[in-house]
Each structure stands twice: as structure tokens, then as C-alpha cells.
Design goal:
The protein has 231 residues and is an alpha+beta fold. It has a domain at 64-205 and 218-230: Macroglobulin (MG2) domain (Immunoglobulin-like). Helix content is 18%, strand content 25%. The protein has helices spanning 5-8, 12-24, 58-68, 123-127, 195-203; strands spanning 78-82, 86-87, 92-98, 103-110, 116-120, 136-137, 143-145, 157-158, 164-173, 208-209, 216-217, 221-230. It is globular and about 80 Å long. It starts with a helix and ends with a strand. Residues 1-30 and 51-55 have low confidence and may be disordered.
Length: 231
Amino acid sequence: MRPQASGSGISMRGVCGLLAALLMGTVVLAQEPRSVTILPEAPEVPETPPATPAPSIAPLRLELLNSTVKVENPAGVSVDVIPSLEVTVGSKIGFRVATKKSGYLILLDIDADGKLTQIFPNPTAATRGVRDILNFIRSGRPLTIPQVGTPFAGFEFVANLPTGIAMVVALLSDKAVQVVDLPDAPPPSFAPGDALKYIRDQARSLKVPHPDSGQLEQPTWSIDGKFYLIK
């Protein structure tokens, strides 16, 4: 580093006088210990360029899973995650559901650890006899949940831990039903691609009471799932 005159504490005149004395041989420099050691300038070390992050395979895996994992779906129900299939922990998300045949909608969520939860309709409110939970959707009229200005505006969905690949499943029944009694999680050995088939097999064993007679009936289920990534 080259010192500047204003910060050196030595005036220009003093430096010239000292230089003249040295040239005339009349000044002897005492070998006093230096308070500042001047080291030769170290060679500049070239900066290492930052490592290029490895490309994420999650989007490709999501695309592959969502295009290949399908089960019986006679009503043509479909579910999408909004705003995108990649969400961060703590962010709000929503779901868009469409169907070619009218029916009663139930949404299930399977987190990255395989835990299965009914997220729509609210199962607690439904079991308490709240009848104004409108889960009947009509053909050709896509439904966004939650949505401002509709009965689905009083709640919100927030992405939570654990991170990883999760899945939302739309179950559409031709019979009136608001709650499905399914195991909390698929068997531990199940791969993500098997989860949709597992839910289909479990749903086939469910029966619902007729609203008038109370007689148990076997619904016809239509099922669609969508994998998404929480990061």
C-alpha cells in the first residue's frame, strides 16, 4: 500500500531535508525497532468462481409423475396447484378443480413423509353437523379454493414442513359425502407413485349413508392427483 502525504504525519519539507542530509552523508540512521513492518506485496490470488449449482431434477420428476401416475377417473375431475407446482415453506397456496360431471369434492393432502390429511371440506366442521360447507361442484364450472367472494374465502392453505415432494388428491363422489375415513398414511414401503393407487383402493371400500333412508351405498369415485414440491 502506498502511504499518502496527508496521512503520513511527515511534511513535504521535512522529507526533502532528510533526503539532502542522506546524500551529504551527515545523517546516521539509528537501528530502532520499527513499529510498522512493511511486507512485500503478496501476489493476487485469482478468485475462484462460485460453483455452479447442480441442476434440480425435481421439476422433471414432478412432470414425469404427473404425466404417468393416473387411476380411474370416470368424471374427468382434475386438480391443479396454484400459483405453481413449486412452493416455499410458509407461502400461501390454492387449488383449482374442474370436472366433466357434477359431484361432491374432497381434497386430500399427502406430505413428503407420507402423512395423509383431509384439507377440504374441513373435517372437524363437517363432523359437527355444519351443513353450509358447500363441497358440491358442477360440471364445466372450475372451482378455485380458496377464492375471494365465495364460501371458500374464510380459510387459507399454507405450505408447511417437511420439504420435499407432496401430493394433493381430488376425490369426487357421485353420492353426498363430506368426510372420508382413510388411514393417516400409506404403508411406509409405498413409493410416491403408488400413493394414488393406494387411495383409490381404500376409497373403493368406503360406503356412505343415503341422506333420506340412511341405507349404506357405494359411491362411484373419480380421482385425480397432482404432485408438487415444497422447498
